[in-house]
Amino acid sequence: MSVGHGSVRRVTVVGEDVLSRPCREVTNFGSPELSTLIDDMFVTMYVAEGAGLAANQIGVDLRLFVYDCPDDDGVRHVGHIVNPVLDQPEPGSRRLVEEFEGCLSVPGAVMQVPRVDRTVVRGFDKDGHPLVIEGAGYFARCLQHESDHLIGHTYLDRLSKRDRKDALRQMADRREEVFAQRVVRAAELGRSVRRPG
Q1: Catalytic residue (one of 101, 146, 177, 188)
Q2: Rounded to whole angstroms, how far apart are CA atoms 98 and 105?
Q3: Is the Cβ–Cβ distance between 146 and 67 less than 8 Å?
Q4: Which of 64, 77, 150, 194 is packed most tightly, with the most Cβ within 10 A?
Q5: CATH classification number, 17-188, choose in 3.40.50.880, 1.10.287.130, 2.40.10.500, 3.90.45.10
Q6: Active-site residue, 146 included
């Protein structure tokens, strides 16, 4: 798999302030800085073996996420979206599905999270051209998960108090193993990654 020219960034972990506040609108469309950020996000996502990554997950509080995610039919969706807005479904128009979900910023934890089975996200590409992305099944879940990040939420915010405690316990048990795997994967791709300090 080609991972482009980006640099691996440190993935933020739940509890860090940047993950719990709404991100700022992107205004520098077409800039080298925005292109570099997107390249870095893709490489970081691949090293962490994620299906999506929001900018605040590498400490940048901008409304932007990248994804490389299959849908339920096995079709691969790869791209980025800037200043995304999720369409709000009409009541009763979409099915709520509970499936297991993880998060690169909650390393090692997997919990069942309810999400609607179809969604539409509207935003822009890095050059400011309008984008409309429609997702079903797992890809819809990914789009909702990443959109949540940009308003300062993680999937933990959708869990009961008890399930949230369970997820944090899973993270405490497994995070060091996950961080070690990311370092190994980065080395395999010829990159280095800073360990969270």
Answers
A1: 146
A2: 20
A3: yes
A4: 64
A5: 3.90.45.10
A6: yes
